[in-house]
Structure formats: C-alpha cells, structure tokens
Amino acid sequence: MTVALLDADLLAGTPLPKLSPNSDKEARGAVLVVAGGGGVPGAPVLTGRAALRAGAGKLQVVATRRLLGHLGAVLPEAAMLCVPETRRLEIALPSSLCVAALAADAGSVVVGPGMAPRKTPRRFARNLMEAWPFLPIVVDAAALPAPSEAENFSRLANGRVVLTPHAGEMARLLDRTREAVLADPLAMARDAASSLRSVVVMKGAATFVATPSGLAWRHLGGVAGLATSGSGDVLAGLIAGLMARGASPLQAAQWGVYLHAAAGRRLAANLGPLGFLASELPDQIPGILDEIER
Questions:
Q1: Domains in the chain and their CATH numbers?
Q2: Which of 4, 110, 156, 240 lies 20 to 30 Å from 135, alpha-carbon distance?
C-alpha cells in the first residue's frame, strides 16, 4: 500500500468543521484532560493549553486534592475535577460510576500524558471507553494498552480513538523491540491501527498517521527541537481540542500533527533550532490555524 503526504495541501482538502462567527464556547466543545500527577504535575497544563489553543470551548482537568490549587493557579481557564490520590500524589482510579460522571459534559477526552506507568492510566482509559461508547478519546503514554489488553481495547475503540505512541511506546504496545519499530515505523503504525481499531500517530522524525483500514500518511515537516520534554503532551492536547470542535479522529490527528510541527518550525526560526520549550508551542497555534483556514 502507498503512503500519502501529510501537508498543507491535504489540510486544504479536509477543512475543519465551520463555526458560526456567533458560536459560543458550547459549540466548540469541552475537553477532559486526565494527565500528570506527583511526578509530572505540569503535563495537564501543557495538554490543556494546547486543547484550548486548538479552539476547544471549555477545559476540564482531573486533579488530585493536593494538586488542585496549584493547577488552578496556573491554568485558570479550567474547571478542576477532584479525584482520589495515592501516597505519591498520583491519580488514583475512582469508581467506574465516578469515571463516567467525569466525562458527562466532555466532547473529547485525552488520557495518559505525564501519568505514572502503572495500571491506573490504562484502566482509566478503558473505563471511559466502556462508559461512553461514542466519545472521541486520545490515548497517550502510560494509558496506551498492554499487549494482553489488545483484544478488549479493540472492541471498545471502534474507530473513535487516537493513539499517540513514540517508538519506545510502540514497541511495548506491539511487544516488539524498539529497533524493529525504528526499522519500519510505517508498518508498525498500520499494524497497531488495524489490531486496535484506532487511528495511530506514530511519532518520530517522520511522523506517520494510519487508520484501521490501512490508509496512511507521512509528515516530514518536523524540526529537531520538537524532541523535547512535554512536546507529546502538547500534540495530544491539540488532537483532543480539534475533536472537541467536531473534527473526526483521523482529521484531528492529521491537523494536530501538522500544527504541532508548524509551531516547532516557527519557534526554530525565531529562537533557534534547539532549546525552545514545549510550553511555547501552544501559543503559536491560533496564528497558524488562521493562516491555513484563510
């Protein structure tokens, strides 16, 4: 199968859903962010700001009691939803009914950025998928399913999930070696998309977007400076924000990848090829969106 190019021409042919000039925040949807914890408390900030910069109307952030005030201070746009915490200040899994209630008003969800690599992020994602069968969801980092969970995950995914692994995460996802993933990232992306019935964003120097049917796109416009802490959290937030606005999982993945790389190119041109921060990426997005949509 061939692989198409993911570029500005592709986006021009798949414009984002139009919004009325008089539309309110409800029309642009709410993003629920389940991310971070005691080890990486800034992850929900990066993810949430990216979702808002992508045009989402509202932001909801799951937070533990002792991090609630800190996150509220640095992310005043968000509604904070308090959940139990572990002794390490990590998010503890609430009851299934509580998980379902958290997403009652969400237009999309992102789970996993900055969370500790334990079972809780995976179970959080699974419980959300079970409670809300049609809710678009971005599954990232620690929330990506283990190989033993693939069959059940595939049944629940049903094409409305976007997975965003890097090479190491893809290796764990498919139970392969990292070297095998790096040798043929396109094949791995297609394999994961097919087996997990999800849109897959295989992150790397060249990023691939693949669908369960085997369609795939290659994006080559990234810069070296994007390989920095928190950059993947921003990408996950962008995709979730676009889905909240009404984009399909595939369209949101394609636009998210392009916008993320375009933001990196702008910062590389203005600041230098290395050393810009993930927290600087979201502020570039509104201008880039405006240029593309014009």
A1: 26-293 (3.40.1190.20)
A2: 4
